[in-house]
Amino acid sequence: MHSNSSKNTWLLIMVASLGYFVDIYDLIIFSIVRVRSFQDIGVPEELMRVKGEFVLNMQMGGLLLGGLIWGVIADKYGRIKVLFGSILLYSLANIYNGFVHDVTTYAVVRFIAGIGLAGELGAGITLVSESMHRSKRGYGTMLVAGVGVLGAILAYFVSEWFDWRTAYFVGGGMGILLLMMRVGTFESGLFAQAVESTHVQKGSLKLLFSHPERIKRYFYCLGIGLPIWFVVGVLVTQAPEIGAALGATTTLSAGKGVMFTYLGISVGDFIAGLLSQWLKSRKKVVFLCQILILISSLWYLNSEGIGENKFMFLAFFMGIGVGYWATFVTIAAEQFGTNLRATVATTAPNFVRGALIPSTLLYGYFVGVWGIIPAAIVTLLLLTGIAIFALTQLEESFDKDLNYYEE
């Protein structure tokens, strides 16, 4: 019986890992093929940036809305239903994306894809966390994220080898194949118990935001993730502009930078997962990652005359620092009871992704005041400071019993 249970758990980890792999591929494929796809559908050169921001913000809006929808569904009706529904939605959206011929349709399809993409990681992490022994679940969530972020590497190479439309078809096709693999996966035992407890309120946003202490706990969970997307979305994505401000010897490639950063994130996820098991603490690991983010990012932002090779190395190094992504989602899941766990684990990563919008606005304001490099340093220090403070306010959740409800 134990052997069968262990086999089922490994199947769950594999299915969740591959799901996140496809999720990451589909999440960043637009950023990679944006220029080529826009050129193909006739977007003028001077509108590339504005139209690109419009489509990306539509996808981001879908992620924010989807986080709420799938989180509530996962707590009310089950984690498995989200794993099926979300992947079906974003796979079909990505296949359709390969047929678009105008920016408006492109944006609407990315919005729908964003809704689908929002459900994958939170439901997968929740299911794995609830299905493993509490002293070992860090290994499971480490594998899910460590394998998952490698989807970014595949996205880069597929976009290099094939036409942009084919790149979308590949993403949608992988999702449909994975959907077939998911037949036979089992529901979380803790969720099954919650279903039997008819008096327990499940998946309620009102319950989440009805108590001051719960609200604070939720916002502290969001706070520890703030530096992640600033590093990826600004420091690496805006590498050409930052490189120019540093007097780079060549134009830095954002595409290659993103690939090396995600490679670092994958390595970082494994390191953070192993360290949290060895130190028996998630908080210590997140603190070490914040220090690593500061060291690597400040090194990058002080590299006068930076060359391409040094940028690739620093992008990888920064990726290791922000590789506590899985640990961040695991902490969020472990801070709340079974009846709100999936809602938090699904909304938290999407809200942190969405927090890139106010972060970039703040950064943009600072750029106008001090210039690119000082603005990046100040914003980084501010976000990291918030993350470290939020971390001190959360209880240690390693080896915490998750079999309880929020009243």
Automatic annotation (TrEMBL):
Compartments reported by the entry: Membrane
Keywords, alphabetical: Membrane, Transmembrane, Transmembrane helix
Annotated TM spans: 12-34, 54-73, 105-127, 139-158, 164-181, 218-239, 259-278, 285-301, 313-333, 362-391
Entry membrane topology: Multi-pass membrane protein
Span of domain Major facilitator superfamily (MFS) profile: 12-397
Gene3D superfamilies: MFS general substrate transporter like domains (1.20.1250.20)
GO molecular function annotation: carboxylic acid transmembrane transporter activity
Pfam families in UniProt: MFS_1
Cited PANTHER family: CARBOXYLIC ACID TRANSPORTER PROTEIN HOMOLOG
Designated name of the protein: MFS transporter
Organism of derivation: Sphingobacterium yanglingense
